[in-house]
Amino acid sequence: MISFTFPKSSPSTPLPQHQHRGPIRLGSPVSSAGRKRRIMSMQCNRLTAFLLLGFGITLFLTHTIVQQTTGQSSIEHISKLSKFLPSKTVNRWADLYVAEADFPETTYMTGVAGFNYFHNLYFANGTFLIVTSEPSSLPSYGINGILSGLQDPTDKWHNHWAAEEDRIMIVSPQEAKERMLLGKAAIRKSGVSMMFADIREGGQSSFLNHYYHFIGEMFLGLWRVVTAAGEIELPSRLIYKADSPDWRDHAGITTWFQQAVLPEAEIEEATIYEDRRKSGVTFLFDKIAIADRWAAHRAGQEVKYWNKANADLPSLPVPLTWMDPLRDQIKRLALAEGCDMKRKNPKVPIVLYINRQLTSRRLLDEDAEELIEEMEKLADEGVIEFYNEFMEKLPRVEQFCLAMKSDVMFAVHGNGLSHQLWMKPESAVMEIMPVTGFARDYAILGEMMNHEYYAIHYNETFPVEKWRKENGYGVDQGPDFHSPRITVDGKFMAGMVRKLVSTRINVVEPALPWK
Ligand SMILES: *[C@@H]1O[C@H](CO)[C@@H](O)[C@H](O)[C@H]1NC(C)=O
Ligand SMILES: *[C@@H]1O[C@H](CO)[C@@H](O)[C@H](O)[C@H]1NC(C)=O
């Protein structure tokens, strides 16, 4: 039989024999110079102790005064800071298995239809269980706005209905016990989980295999609900109820984002979901945010007017800094790769034109030329630092580096405008569209980011008041939306840029919270 023995102490290398290991004895022989030094150092020690004591008292007093005068303690401030630390620093092994007697109730944190955030959500036999003795604490849309069921393959209208008990249910602790839904113990999944309930059904794709639909809708929505709950913690796992070909985008930006920006997050596909379902074990998700596109469409408010799953998200209030943890990750990576985020001249703002002329949705050639000429004039004049970029030709980190340092970004409607997510909040974004149409995708991102956003129709801005028809629904994209005949007036754009940079001359890149 093989037996293993473990060293009693930690398996660090023992000290070499010649090193002194006993207590340091003060009576060892020293020269008189050495003694003087020691006396001086003892005096120094007393001085240090005295200063430390003084410092401690001052800290205590100022803390008390701060508390009395502003009603806000510095302790509270410190506890706010600790929110930035990943929850992995707590001992996740200590409370991995939770006995039935200790089962906590589910808490609904916050959300909008299609994007909902819970603490202590259970998962057993393929079903999520909201265990609560207060169902009124849940949003009024109920399951309808949380999760969808499978499509009926015989339904030619491809309706998506709310999920039934084979996927999610709301139960009281009593009922869960009586129906033996939860078993005797649960396995805790700690940290923030994000679940993307989009799945391919029949011939229809889940939409997730397009970077914008992942980053600008599903992921951003879940990040929004977590930060709206006052929590700032990068996700520990991303759960797909979709198979691999259905959620990976062909350009590989989604997977790049996951691997580079969220390197600590586990990526779980439908297979893992199945494994958990079949395991016969109950799981307790500490913190889980669930995105479901069709739930947003069924139960959303603004969603139905715009046909955009994320249209209700801007209404969820978040701090201006809500994107910082993600942006800081990209920034650290970009800096490590040698990205220079500084302006060439500290008083000259950076303007980025995402050039899409190599694709089929583009500007008329002559308008495209004039646009660049006008921008180059501004650059020659020393008003802007100008970048005219075919993003698709740049290494990925360089694209993000450019976006992060830009004060103003503009482009024809397209995926490139997703890069506005990495600009500093309150930057400026202009989206060029054919004069006959409008789509709100990137305007929603702009609003969520608190950017100054403009839709551009040739030589004018297309103002918010005109975005809706009389019946409340968003105006149509129009016939030329995806055409190569989009027009823009370069001189008008130069005037806009001049105005937008004038208020951003003194903007500086914020420092990283820690290195
Ligand atoms: C597990 O789920 C299946 C399918 O929803 C259901 O038929 C079965 O009764 C469930 N088993 C238990 C123990 O709840
Ligand atoms: C904008 O362009 C249209 C069409 O060319 C023109 O009729 C109009 O006068 C222009 N407006 C301004 C303010 O230049």
Automatic annotation (TrEMBL):
The keyword Ligase appears for this protein: no
Topology of this chain in the membrane: Single-pass membrane protein
GO molecular function terms attached to this record: protein O-acetylglucosaminyltransferase activity
Lineage top rank: taxon: Eukaryota
Spans traversing the lipid bilayer: 47-66
Compositionally biased tracts (Low complexity): 1-16
Keyword Transferase among UniProt keywords: yes
UniProt-listed GO biological process terms: protein O-linked glycosylation via mannose
Region Disordered: start-end pairs: 1-32
Cellular component annotations (GO), alphabetically ordered: endoplasmic reticulum; membrane
Signal peptide (from-to): none
Domain Glycosyltransferase 61 catalytic, residue spans: 211-430
Location of the protein in the cell: Membrane
Keywords recorded for this protein, A-Z: Glycoprotein, Glycosyltransferase, Membrane, Transferase, Transmembrane, Transmembrane helix
Cited PANTHER family: GLYCOSYLTRANSFERASE (PTHR20961), PROTEIN O-LINKED-MANNOSE BETA-1,4-N-ACETYLGLUCOSAMINYLTRANSFERASE 2 (PTHR20961:SF38)
Protein's recorded name: Glycosyltransferase 61 catalytic domain-containing protein
Naturally occurring in which organism (per UniProt): Kwoniella bestiolae CBS 10118
Classification lineage: Eukaryota, Fungi, Dikarya, Basidiomycota, Agaricomycotina
